[in-house]
Amino acid sequence: MQHDITSYAKSRHTVKAYNPDKTIPDEHIAKIKELLRYSASSTNAQPWHFVIASTPEGKEKIAKSTDRLYPFNRNSIINASHVVVFCSRLDIEEDYLLRVLEQEERDGRFGGNPEFKVQMHAGRSLFVNLHKHDFKDVQHWMDKQVYLNLGAFLLGVSTLGIDATPMEGIEITELDKQLGLREQGYTGLVVVPIGYHHTEDDYNAKLPKSRLPESDIITHI
Amino acid sequence: MQHDITSYAKSRHTVKAYNPDKTIPDEHIAKIKELLRYSASSTNAQPWHFVIASTPEGKEKIAKSTDRLYPFNRNSIINASHVVVFCSRLDIEEDYLLRVLEQEERDGRFGGNPEFKVQMHAGRSLFVNLHKHDFKDVQHWMDKQVYLNLGAFLLGVSTLGIDATPMEGIEITELDKQLGLREQGYTGLVVVPIGYHHTEDDYNAKLPKSRLPESDIITHI
Question: Residue B130 falls within a domain, yes or no?
Fold first, then answer.
């Protein structure tokens, strides 16, 4: 990276037109997958899945979820180099929690101490059950972790010189059907075309960013 | 930044013990505020507020929200250089939407074209009303934007050499009371102590990261 992180935060923008002739090189796709995989999540629950479309057929399936209500989003999906679908799990059941726990053990998180493994499972289950049974918002809680991943992703890819267009304007039912997500235990949340903006047509590249003043959003104590 | 963004994503970790004698310099606090302010959000709604505690009194108020249920979180709050409380708005009412719109106009987003201003307000209202009236999850939708900001923040501060400890383990009712958040139209979501880890005591700095395998979380189409 050449610049300070704030310069990326301030210069990145939501692309409105992609150059269909520019493709993200494989070594950057590999880095993008590492960004997705290494994101933080509450209790390391990682309640997510990602579909990465690089083929015209894959992008077309995703674009179908914009046709009825958000037709203005189709072109970005079709013309981008790749499209990343951020998905959430539909359930966070005991089997899955044990799978995460076993992975942590294999990766050396417990240093051979069985007590640490028990504590980790208890801590993660505490938060999952709080959201399942007390707050009854476990789907939203999982979705929030996916948004956390999305935030790191948008800033992260900008440092690689890659543009992005985060979209909530998709019909989830259609997206899930097109990609067969629910059968696999996932549901789509946000679609993010990535690539390189079209120098002439991307009007948003030329507009200044706008944010509320610092005094409105920050309190010091 | 000296390294590739993925090296930061892979090396950052949730700090379990801070060095109470190390303070984040002012120029980095200024950058941190820019990261918070310039985060993306759906339709640029920016439905957030941040409380930054740098005084012992401020940190003590925040720590009180851990005492009943999450006492293990107190020390990180007290010993960190600063503590950032990520808050969500409690409502996203017409007056607020117009305030964002006026700011965008002042910042030059509409280039003097009143039609663009009308379109922006209509687009943003479409999404807000979808979540208010159709999905009835507008609080969660706002919270998700705050988590997006949090994701960029965690990755962003790591590139400045600053450690962080994102915490959901806080009692929101107590936190909101201590900081007087609800009277101002906000509610706390996540507390993030930031600073520099204690070289000897931060056991998590020495443990390897663990993540599910790429083949589990990514599908290519």
Answer: no
| DSSP H or E run through A85 | strand A82-89
Q: In B, which residues are within 8 Å of A212 by CB distance? A: 37, 46, 99-100, 103
- CATH number of domain containing A198: 3.40.109.10
pLDDT at A1 over 90: no
ipTM: 0.97
In this prediction the pTM is 0.98
Nearest chain B alpha carbon to A155: B152
Q: Exposed, middle or buried: residue B200 (CB in 10 Å: 0-12, 13-18, 19+)?
A: exposed
What's the pLDDT at B77? 98
Calculate how close chain A gets to B158, using CA atoms only, in Å. 10
For B160, the closest of A2, A5, A50 (CB atoms) is: A5
DSSP code for A58: H
Residue of chain B whose alpha carbon sits nearest to that of A5: B156
Sheet containing strand A82-89, edge to edge, reads A163-164, A186-195, A82-89, A48-53, B218-220
From first CA to last CA, the distance across chain A in angstroms is 34
Residue B195 lies in a domain: yes
* Tens-place pLDDT, residues B190-199: 999 999 999 8
Q: Distance (Å, rounded) from C-alpha A45 to C-alpha A92? A: 9
Range of the domain at A196: 5-89+140-202
Q: What is the distance between the alpha carbons of residues B87 and B36, in angstroms, rounded to a whole number?
A: 12
- Chain B: residue whose CA lies nearest to A150: B148
| Contacts B143 to A, Cβ<8 Å | 140, 144
